[in-house]
């Protein structure tokens, strides 16, 4: 038995105009899958990378990795979920921009009643990103000082709050005084307006010349050298995104010259490879949302039919906090 769904599809790489709202067939869930009636879908920068072809994927395809909703059918072999469960995911195959879809059950976590669909759709990919960055990639300790670029963005506002919850001093960067103020409100210790200040010099001032044990950089090309200049000897550069374009032509001798630096280019999937690790990371995130130490800042809501406008706003850095698509 098949059902019909409304979904965003692309048949060619390009600008926002390639996003088309289509009617697609959704078959019964296969072995190891569940069918989810989606209530809210998250928008992330990685969606734009797949739309443009920066991250290649065979065409045609859908977009999106993150959503929340209700299980309406369960495939063979799935034991941790049942029809009627409230669920969320942040690491699915492409295709979350839809009102109904099948998802591998090992990517799906149970959603506590006290976390809303909107919160979960806005939090899963961004929140789990911060979870693996702060608790696994480099396990932050209370009292440490770190740098986090784009601190007023979707991931950044989670990072500001999570750092505060850990007793970590987060130095954020942002492009305007308004965004600096927003990051401060969400828990950043200090914020540097990179449009008017020299980030590396300001970091040296704030740390009395000691610089930092770790820098988290989701911006990429534009901030690569600045990030390296903020690290102390044997510090770790965590380059986890490409908002300004990919880092290319990495000079290993530069890492030596700047103090035997370490660099990693991680991705979430390698830190939550199983259903158990995914649920554990999500539970860590949900506990902070439930007790109020992380408030999910949803700056924009769009209907799915306006996916192009939503991606344009994100790419132009006209958004704050998270952006979600709302579904009936």
TrEMBL record:
Presence of the UniProt keyword NADP in the record: yes
InterPro entries: ADH-like_C (IPR013149), ADH-like_N (IPR013154), ER (IPR020843), GroES-like_sf (IPR011032), NAD(P)-bd_dom_sf (IPR036291), QOR-like (IPR047618), Quin_OxRdtase/zeta-crystal_CS (IPR002364)
Domain Enoyl reductase (ER): 14-325
Protein name per its UniProtKB record: Quinone oxidoreductase
Pfam hit, one: ADH_zinc_N
UniProt KW keywords: NADP, Oxidoreductase
NCBIfam families the UniProt entry points to: PRK10754.1
Organism, as annotated: Yanghanlia caeni
């Amino acid at each position: 038995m098949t059902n019909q769904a409304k979904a965003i599809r692309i048949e060619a790489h390009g600008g926002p105009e390639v996003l088309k709202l289509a009617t697609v067939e959704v078959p019964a869930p296969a072995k190891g899958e569940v069918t989810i009636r989606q209530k809210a879908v998250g928008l992330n920068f990685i969606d734009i990378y797949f739309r443009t072809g920066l991250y290649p994927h065979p065409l045609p395809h859908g977009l999106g990795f993150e959503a929340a909703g209700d299980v309406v059918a369960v495939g063979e072999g799935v034991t941790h979920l049942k029809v009627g469960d409230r669920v969320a995911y942040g690491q699915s195959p492409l295709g979350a921009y839809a009102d109904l879809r099948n998802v591998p059950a090992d990517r799906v976590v149970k959603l506590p009643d006290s976390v809303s669909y909107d919160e979960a759709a806005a939090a899963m990919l961004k929140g789990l990103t911060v979870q693996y960055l702060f608790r696994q990639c480099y396990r932050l300790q209370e009292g440490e000082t770190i740098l986090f670029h784009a601190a007023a963005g979707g991931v950044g506002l989670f990072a500001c709050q999570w750092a505060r919850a850990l007793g970590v001093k987060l130095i954020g960067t942002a492009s305007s005084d308004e965004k600096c103020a927003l990051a401060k409100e969400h828990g950043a210790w200090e914020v540097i307006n990179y449009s008017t200040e020299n980030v590396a010099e300001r970091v040296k001032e704030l740390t009395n010349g000691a610089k930092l044990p770790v820098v988290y950089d989701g911006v990429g090309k534009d901030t690569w050298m600045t990030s390296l200049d903020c690290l102390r000897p044997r510090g770790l550069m965590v380059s986890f995104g490409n908002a300004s374009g990919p880092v290319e032509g990495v000079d290993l001798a530069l890492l030596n010259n700047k103090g035997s630096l370490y660099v990693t280019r991680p991705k979430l999937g390698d830190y939550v490879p199983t259903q158990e690790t995914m649920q554990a990371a999500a539970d860590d995130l949900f506990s902070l949302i439930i007790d109020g130490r992380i408030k999910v800042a949803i700056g924009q809501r769009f209907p799915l039919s306006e996916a192009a406008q939503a991606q344009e706003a994100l790419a132009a850095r006209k958004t704050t906090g998270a952006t979600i698509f709302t579904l009936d």
